[in-house]
Amino acid sequence: MQKILLESLEKNIEAIEKLFSNCYDIIIRRIEVGDVNRVKMAVIYIDGLIDKDHISRFTVGHLFCEEELKQFTLKGYRNSLIDIISKEVIANTEIKEEHHMDKIVNAILSGDTVLLIDKVDKCIIIGSRGWPSRGIGEPETETVIRGPRDGFTEVLKVNTTLVRRRIKDTNLKIIVKQVGRRSKTDVAIMYMDDIVDKSLLKELKERLATLDIDSIPDSSVLESLIEDNYLSPFPQIESTERPDAVAASLYEGRVALIVDNSPFALILPATFGTLLQSSEDHYSRWAESSFVRLIRLFAVALTVLSPSLYVAVTAYHPGLLPTILTYYLAASRINVPFPAVVEATLMELTLELLRESGTRISGPIGTTVGIVGGLIIGQAAVEAGIVSPLMIIIVAVTTISSFAIPSYELGVGFRLWRFILIACASVLGLYGIVLGIIVLLTHLVRLNSFGVPYTSPYSGLGISEGELKDTLIKAPTQHLQQRPSFTSPRNKIRMRGYWKDGKRE
Amino acid sequence: MAKENKLSNKQIKALVVSTTVGIGILSLPNRLAIANGNDGWIPLILSGLLIIPIIMAMDKIFQMYPDQDFFSIGREVLGKWLFNIFLVIFFIYLLILMSNIVRNLGELVKAFLLVTTPIEVLIISFILVTSYMARDNIQVIGRAAHFIYPLILGFIIFLIVVTLPDIDFTNMLPVFQSDFSNIPKGMDIAFFSYIGYEVLLFAFPYAEKKENTLRSSLKGLGVVILVYTIIYVLTMAQFGVYSLRRQSFPTLSIVREVDLPGYFVENLDGVVMAFWVLAVFTTMAPFYFASGKVLSNLFNTKDHSLFILPIAPIIYIMSLIPRNLVHLNETLGKYTNYLGLVTIVLMPIIIYFVALFKTRRQSK
User: Fold this and answer.
1) Which of these, A81, A114, B173, B344, has the minimum number of CB atoms within 10 Å of its CB?
2) pLDDT by residue (tens digit) across A432-441?
3) What is the DSSP string of B294-321?
């Protein structure tokens, strides 16, 4: 294959045509420019990826109309024709010269337009990306009552812009790397240059550099490829649809990755504490946010424990409950032909099924799924005597609390552990549950996210710096004068004063 | 990525507390009441204070040889052979200690939670679960300890709150009336309830801020002394000395007495027992880790996780040797104390003095 551009236009076009053979979307437009001296040129682009109107008006149109080109003679031909064209003729703003074949092909594939000129061994690459895309909409997975409502789209540039609009600081750096041998997906690394921990950045770049894979279809694939422990059920990288969440985490000294074609940005490092935060926490009043954060921890405990506790208590330790409650429990289970384990597993599995089918199907069929599922779970199962009413309540509580966990992936991890704990409880009762919790705790404690202990600050690091103020609860903004320390930010102070500081003096 | 290799001082404090407070606390007031009657708190506090110089000696050792771990220091100070003999004793001590712990736990779980489950199942499942943690390094254990630490403190606070209504402090009286010649006997019991501070031998080299490590480890010890004393006082005030002598697990019994309005859990002792498994886990895990570490140093291998699983059956078999709880205390409990005296009391002190002697001579 031809490595660089030659002087002959025909040979160059031939080489490109050969590469793009059988690609129906490639457009090669030959033009001739100049009255005195006719120069052959070719405009090459991929149909659909570019803003056609823009190119035909400001590139091709200007080439045809520019007076100087018409008057152009052979004098000084070699040096300055390309200069004249790029500096005086083409009205597009993004322009660069290139002579490496692979870079040119890459540019064409990414939606740039290439202008080849006869007898010049360089071409002009005109930035003309413009493809149909979804507009900025409200994020569907992370809605807020109060707070900005714009969400990421599938286009990298739109996404970086949404973040840039929130950080008007030259310290916001955006480095774009291409990942994926074939898909050549653009991945933007965003960070605040004077806050971020440089070793974190180095580690991330090393991990990205080692990647050799066909394609990155979505940011979740990249996430699983660069995280510390890919076998763990818990995500070690946060993902969000919200530009304000990304901006906030950049201010905390974390790094964001935005992957082209994915409306989910990745934020790292992530800890158990950050995954239980929602961006709304920072927009509502501190008392409410603090309360909600405690509720979320409670939700985690409920979603993991409640069915297994039910199994343990009914099967092994009915004596733990007061006599009246024990009688009630026994009475409600009197018609149930299954042991508690089967009952719990059955109901939890049904609910998972219902959730899965509800997620995949929307619209009228989705409603049917909801009605059928609600009826089966709510009424028919109890009346048929397959499960006890108490079990229904427990299943409902578990499901509701699993949705109270802001990070969907974290919730999924806990959902899986719920089944493990049910199994533990069925074998060894409360003791089994505790053993299961120990294994879960050990697993969580062993996890790291880019060198940051996953369970920090609860597990000790950062507590002396008052990190719990913004994880366990959310203190008023006036008290959060320092950035969180788990990212070891180089610039530690986030807030220097508010109106009461002035009054005090 | 330096952070994952450090232990913060809070973690060291938590490590001391959660390693020390374990299975022993459930029966400690009973044993002390038998030995010293109303004055059981005197040996409790005295022997706690006795630990302070040992911890200080440990800290001094690591100050004399900064950036070295316990094993390389020991080998340098005592010489390879002598230190290896100490290590073998240390290893046997840890094995017996762990079998003691798991057997005690098994008996308790059987008594309070799972009456019909064979004790072998309870023991082996606990050992296996702990081995997962023991395969990792001390930093991870420190993190787990920090998780459990508030639980232990929370339990104590809970205990104080719920027992206060029907507590009778006159049960504590008369003080200073028991025979003072019995104090050493009480010390014998109390001192070994502080077993667990030897985890500092492994924790010190990884401390984040070395200058504060001693202080936080002593703080941890202080918390342990406080916890023990509170438990002792509470159980004594609740039951009185004669009743306390007949309760083999007074700390659990005291929970059983609790009856507050709004409770929907009746027999809290079972629930507390279940939670206490977590506390025992953080006691067991560092010892398990330490035994693997000692073995890997004896065999000169880098990775201690290789040895963790092979140790499991040894602990299991040893823990099943005693016939019952009384026999357990007479055999494994006794050996733990004797070997503990050699390894966690004598060894650090000997290393300290020899190291002091050596460095003095070098500087001359």
Assistant:
1) B173
2) 999 999 999 9
3) HHHHHTT-S-THHHHHHHHHHHHHHHTS
**CB A441 to CB B274 under 8 A?**
no
Q: Which residues contact A19 (CB under 8 A, 6 or more apart)?
A: A1, A105
User: For residue B227, what pLDDT is reported?
Assistant: 92
**DSSP, res A179:** E
Instruction: Provide the β-strand partners of residue A30.
Output: A42
**Banded model confidence at residue B225, pLDDT cuts 50, 70, 90:** very high
Q: How far does the CA of residue B11 sit from the closest CA of chain A (Å)?
A: 6
Q: Tell me, what's the ipTM?
A: 0.93
Q: What is the pLDDT of residue B93?
A: 93
CA gap A257, B2 in Å, rounded:
23
Residues of A in contact with B121 (CB under 8 A): 428
Strands (E), A162-207: 172-179, 185-192
- Convert A317-334 to b/e letters by CB count within 10 Å (16 or more is b): beebbeeeebeebeebbe
Count of other CB atoms within 10 angstroms of residue A232: 15
Chain A interface includes B129 (CB < 8 A): yes
- What token pair was written down for A238? 């946060």
Determine whether the interchain pair B264/A321 forms a contact, defined as Cβ–Cβ distance below 8 Å. yes
Q: Where are the domains of chain B?
A: 3-363
The contact set of A with B (CB < 8 A) is 199, 203, 316-317, 319-323, 325, 428-435, 437-439, 441-443, 445-446, 448, 450-453, 455, 458-464, 488
Residue numbers in B near A464 (CB within 8 A): 8-10
Q: Say how many Å lie between the first and final Cα of chain B, rounded.
A: 41
Amino acid B2: pLDDT: 47
Mean pLDDT of chain A: 87
Preceding amide of A406 cis, omega within 30 = no
Considering only CB atoms, which chain B residues are within 8 Å of A271? none
The answer, yes or no, to whether residue A77 has pLDDT greater than 70, is no
pLDDT of residue A467: 77
Helix or strand or coil: residue A42? strand
Q: Is the pLDDT of residue B263 over 70?
A: no
Q: What is the pLDDT of residue B264?
A: 63
Upstream peptide bond of A263 is cis (omega within 30 degrees of 0): no
Record the tokens describing residue A475, joined without a space.
């203190």
Architecture of the CATH domain B3-363: Up-down Bundle (1.20)
Nearest to A322 among B3, B7, B264 (CB): B264
Q: What is the DSSP string of A129-168?
A: B----PPP---SSS--SSS------S-HHHHHHHHHTT--
Q: Residue A325 is nearest to which of B1, B142, B264, comparing CB atoms? A: B264
Chain A residues near residue B1 by CB distance under 8 angstroms = 199, 203, 448, 450-451
Summarize the confidence of residues A225-231 as an average pLDDT.
92
What is the spatial distance between Cα A431 and Cα A316, in angstroms, rounded to a whole number? 10
